Automatic annotation (TrEMBL):
GO terms for cellular component: outer membrane. This is Outer membrane lipoprotein. The lineage of its organism: Bacteria, Pseudomonadati, Pseudomonadota, Gammaproteobacteria, Lysobacterales. Keywords: Lipoprotein, Signal. The keyword Signal applies. It comes from Dyella marensis. PANTHER family: OUTER MEMBRANE PROTEIN SLP. InterPro entries: OMP_Slp. The keyword Signal applies.
Length: 170
């Protein structure tokens, strides 16, 4: 039978462990209004229903297109984790075009980079993905963030269990 002090120590250890684990994941980068619009493929089906709806979407940069007065970033959307990082190993949620005022340096948004944007749905546009017709939701961007490798890896569990002998260098 355990003493009351042993039970207290176990409870405190469990609480400390839970707090430690919850502190690992970075906080979201953008404040959510709680009413974020549906996934891009849902918005593409009825864009008028989502007019001016706030979104926090993210995904992989496909291309940057600079126009005379604004720039457009085509993004293949992915679900976001609790820190609003795109989960690129999940299934895609469709594509969208992030519109930004002025010139956007394509080297700052390279093809393949993961990005998260905060903005509002500002309509849609018909286009193509390859030869297939596609409707792209347009997002007027207020803020954007391109994720670095270290940011994507922060807060992830680096403990691995296994049987056998191995050497790992990171």
């Amino acid at each position: 039978m355990r003493t009351p002090n042993a039970n207290l120590v176990l409870r405190l250890a469990a609480i400390a462990a839970l707090l430690g684990l919850s502190a690992c994941a970075p906080a979201p980068i953008y404040k959510s209004t709680g009413t974020v619009a549906a996934a891009p493929f849902n918005v593409a089906e009825a864009p008028e229903r989502y007019s001016n709806a706030p979104v926090i979407w993210g995904g992989r940069v496909v291309a940057v297109n600079n126009l005379p007065d604004h720039s457009e970033i085509e993004v293949l959307a992915y679900p976001l984790d609790g820190s609003q990082r795109p989960k690129a190993n999940d299934s895609g949620l469709g594509r969208f075009i992030a519109t930004m005022p002025g010139y956007v340096e394509s080297m700052d948004y390279p093809a393949g980079a993961l990005v998260t944007v905060d903005g509002q749905i500002s309509g849609s546009r018909a286009g193509k993905v390859g030869e297939a017709p596609y409707v792209f939701p347009l997002v007027k961007v207020n803020q954007s963030h391109v994720w670095t490798t270290s940011e994507l890896n922060s807060g992830k569990n680096n403990v691995h269990f296994g049987v056998g002998v191995g050497v790992g260098i990171r």
